[in-house]
Structure formats: structure tokens, C-alpha cells
Amino acid sequence: MTHRPVGEPDRAVRPYPAEPPWNRPPTADQVDPAVLSALLHRHGWQRRGGAPGRYGRWTPPGPGGGTSLLVPESRSFPDSDDLLGEALVALYRSGSPSARDVLVGLAVPSDEIHWWRDVPASVVGTVPWDVEDQLRTAARRTLLAGALATRARVGYHGVRHRGPAAAALENVLVGAAPGGRRLTAFVPVPTGRPLAVRLHQALFAAREAVDYRRATGGMDAFDVAVGAGVSHELTEALVALVRGSEGAGIAVEWAPAAGVPEDCATPAEPVEFSPGDLPALREAGARYLREEPSVPVRITGAVVRMRRAEPRGEGDVRLRVIAGAEVSHVRMTLDEDAYRIAGHAHLVGLPVRVHGRLESRGGFRRLVGPSGVVPVQVDDAERDRLMKSLQDDLDFFEEVCGGE
């Protein structure tokens, strides 16, 4: 059969520059002077004097100093808005990556997640071309693991919740520092703070579990760490981050405009991992993958594929899940009677309901022990859509009808 449903591929984190509102610099009346000062300090700017209690003079990081900014400490003086406006214009015109990062933090209050890898430079002071790509890939996987942990705290997610988790990263902005050794993700507070909080807690739990494993040889701490958001996906992301480096780390910094989340430390210390941690992380990832149990479900889905080797007997069926599980498609093997019911339901444009267990092996894509296959009535709009998909796939008629 040739019909293939459209899947849900992972969506890449959007690189800088991004779409509005990220690329619209804020106006002076939208900026809190204290937030601007906090962001300047976070991104390496130095305060070098200024009238105490009135304004501070800030210079950018790096050699040469560059253009300095006068930033008021509050709005209590008549020239505060003018100074803020001039500082914002100077930041907007600056070519410094740190100026860009400050503007991003002002445009949308964002928690910042920083990754870095200690990668040896070559004899001419450069790094391999793929270093930044490796860092971006590891960062992407880390963010996805954090987003998955906001949906469920399990040792292995597989394809469950993958679509909503990937969608949660759509508004995350990523910018890499020159050299490919550092990367920052800006996570908007209104939509992304649960992700940042869960990742923050999971990273510390993973660090403690690794320390416990290396000190005692036991894996019990990794079982407890699942409750904090540690999973197979997170350990694999950390392996990808550390592998090929002399050490790596992740730090979460909270948006100054939004304050520190409840139960989170301030300042949040970075979490670092070394090549010596890789055996424990790999062992934990394999353990999570091996021991995550199958899940009992009652799935309603549209039959999109049917196949069997003989005209009669059992056959394989693929469903597009409509309700009952956090996956897009499942496969199952049905006996002859259930296979016939599934085929007839599809021919008349109806989904089926089936009981079974989602098997963790393969990423929760297979339903084992299916039973109680029955057609389900749907509204006219859904029925018309199912019938249209059937008409687009004439091979389905040949396979189903030829088998009876």
C-alpha cells in the first residue's frame, strides 16, 4: 500500500534574528532602568563611574571599551527618559553581540539558558567547523527534553508529547557566540518559564545522580531524579553536549523583569559535566530506556494502513491517533476478525476504538495485546475528511477488498 500519512518532524529552534516581537527595539517608556542595568551586567558590561544615585556609565565587554552608555538608576529625574532613549539607540546601532542580547532581553522578558563546551583549539587558535553545529544540536536536545518534562515526568518519553513539546520551542530564540563554544537561548517568560524551571531542576538532579553513581556505584538517585524531570532524552542530550569536549556546562539565568521563580535559587549556579561523567549518563539513559513500562490505553484512531501476507489471517494495521494517547500514529497486529472490522470501518469512513498497551520499545509506537476493536461514530466533517483520504488512495481498496 502506498498511502503515507504526514508525520510531525521536529521543528528547529529559530536562530537570530527572529520575527517580531524579538526584532523590535523597545522604546524608553517600555524599559525599566533597573532591568536594563541588570542585563548589561549579565552580558559583561562594566559600570565605570557615573553620578551616584542618578546614573551609571557602562562600557561594553572586550578590549577597546567602545561606546559607553549613560543609564539612569530610576525615573525620578527629568532627563531619565532622554538618557534611556539615547542608551537604547546606541545599543541598537552597536555591532556587539552583547548589545544584541541586551536588546532581546528588553524586547520580551526572557529567562536565559547558556551552554558552553571546552573544546581544544587547533595550533592556529581556531576550532573545527562543526563545533558550533554540535553545540546547537546538544542545546536543541536539552531544550526538547525540558519541554517534554513539562508534559510528563517519566524515564523515557519516546514519541509521546513530541509535537506539543516541539511547538513549545517555537518562540525560543538562540544566538551563538563567536568561536562556537558558547550558546544562549532566550526563553520568553509568558510562555516558556515552566520549561526553564523544569530544565533548571532536572539539571541539578542529574548532576546529583551522577555524583551519587560515581561515589557509590548505585543508580537509585537516577530513579528519584525522574520526578525532577530527568529522562533518557535529557541524559542523551548531556552526552551529546559533553562528548568530544574537555568539559561542558549549562546555566539558567532568570529574567530580571520577572524575578526568580518559586523554589529556584538566585543566582542560579551553573551545572557542569565532564568526560568522566559520560559512563554514568550513558548507563542511566540505557536504564531509562529499558525499564520504562508499557502504558495501558484506549485509543480512537483512523485506519491509514493495512497489510497482511495472506488473503486471510492476522494482519498489521496502522492508526492515526485521534484520541487516547500522546502519539500521532500507532501500529498493531490484529487477528482476522478484528482486521476485517478495521477494514470495513475504513471503507465507510469511520475510525475505530481499540484497547491495548503502548509498548515502550520503539518509542511507544506499537500497541500490543489489542482487543475490542469497534467502529466509532464521528461527525459529518470528520467522516468526509476520512472518506477523502480513502479516495486519494485507491491501492487501499485493492489490498482490503482483495483479502476478503
UniProtKB/TrEMBL annotation:
Ranges of compositional bias, category Basic and acidic residues: 1-13
Region span, Disordered: 1-29
Recorded superkingdom: Bacteria
Designated name of the protein: Uncharacterized protein
